[in-house]
C-alpha cells in the first residue's frame, strides 16, 4: 500500500514538473539579439591597474552640454587588458559622448587599447592611439601619450578630478554614420 502511494506521488510530481510551458533556448536568443540591436553601446578595451569607476556622459541634442546623469561602471584593477562596456538606455541615440576615466586619486597610468561603438548591428572601432582623433583630453586633469594610447592622471591640483575626455567633431560624424 505504501509503495503504491509513493509511486503515485512520484508520478504526479514528474507529470506536473515536466509539463511546464517553457520557451526554447533558440527563441530566447532571438529576443536578446533584437533587444541588443536597440541599444547604443560603447566599449573601451583598457588596461587599468587599480580599482576605479568610469563614467560615460552623453547628449542627444548635438551639444557638448553634459548636464545629465552619466552611466557609471565599476572597473577592477588588473595588469591585463579588460573591456569596460557602457549600454545607453534603450532607444537613446547620442550625438556626443564624454568619457571620465575614473575618480580614484591613487590611479596609475592607464592604456587605451581599443574603442568601439555599436548600434543596430553596425559598429565603429578604432585602436587606442587613434582614440585621440575622436576625443580630446581635459588638460586640467589629464595628460596623454598619443603614440602609446596612455592616459595619465594629473595629480598636482588642489582638488583632484579624474582624467576626462571631451568629443571632437569627428566623433559626432562617426556616431551619425553609425545610426543612419
Fold and architecture overview:
- The structure is a single chain.
- With 180 residues, the chain is an alpha+beta fold.
- It has a single domain (39-179), classed as Sandwich (Lipoxygenase-1).
- Helices cover 25% and strands 34% of the residues.
- The chain has 4 helices and 11 strands.
- The protein has helices at 2-18, 25-37, 131-134, 169-179; strands spanning 41-47, 52-59, 71-75, 82-87, 96-100, 110-119, 122-127, 135-137, 142-145, 150-153, 164-167.
- The strands form 2 sheets. Strands 1, 4, 6, 7, 9 and 10 form a 6-stranded antiparallel beta sheet that branches.
- Strand 9 (142-145) and strand 10 (150-153) form a beta hairpin.
- The protein starts with a helix and ends with a helix.
Helix/strand-derived category reads: alpha+beta
Structural domains: how many: 1
Overall strand count:
11
Overall average residue pLDDT? 86
Basic shape:
globular
Low-confidence stretches: none
> Biggest sheet: strands, sense, closure?
6 strands, antiparallel
CATH architecture: Sandwich
N-C termini distance: 72 Å
Q: CATH class, please? A: Mainly Beta
Count of DSSP helices?
A: 4
Helix and strand sequence:
HHEEEEEEEHEEEEH
Q: Please tell me how large the radius of gyration is.
A: 23 Å
Approximately how much helix is present in the residues? 25-40%
The amount of beta strand, in percent, is: 25-35%
Amino acid at each position: 500500500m505504501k509503495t503504491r502511494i509513493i509511486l503515485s506521488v512520484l508520478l504526479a510530481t514528474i507529470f506536473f514538473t515536466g509539463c511546464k510551458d517553457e520557451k526554447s533556448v533558440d527563441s530566447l536568443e532571438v529576443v536578446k539579439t533584437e533587444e541588443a540591436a536597440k541599444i547604443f553601446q560603447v566599449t573601451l578595451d583598457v588596461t587599468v591597474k587599480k580599482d576605479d569607476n568610469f563614467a560615460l556622459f552623453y547628449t542627444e541634442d548635438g551639444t557638448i552640454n553634459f548636464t545629465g546623469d552619466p552611466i557609471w561602471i565599476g572597473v577592477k584593477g588588473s595588469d591585463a587588458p579588460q573591456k569596460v562596456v557602457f549600454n545607453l538606455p534603450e532607444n537613446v541615440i547620442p550625438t556626443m559622448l564624454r568619457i571620465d576615466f575614473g575618480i580614484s586619486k591613487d590611479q596609475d597610468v592607464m592604456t587605451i587599447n581599443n574603442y568601439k561603438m555599436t548600434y543596430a548591428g553596425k559598429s565603429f572601432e578604432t585602436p587606442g592611439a587613434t582614440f585621440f582623433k575622436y576625443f580630446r583630453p581635459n588638460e586640467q586633469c589629464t595628460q596623454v601619450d598619443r603614440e602609446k594610447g596612455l592616459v595619465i592622471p594629473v595629480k598636482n591640483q588642489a582638488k583632484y578630478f579624474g582624467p576626462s575626455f571631451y568629443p571632437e567633431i569627428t566623433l559626432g560624424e562617426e556616431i551619425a554614420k553609425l545610426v543612419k
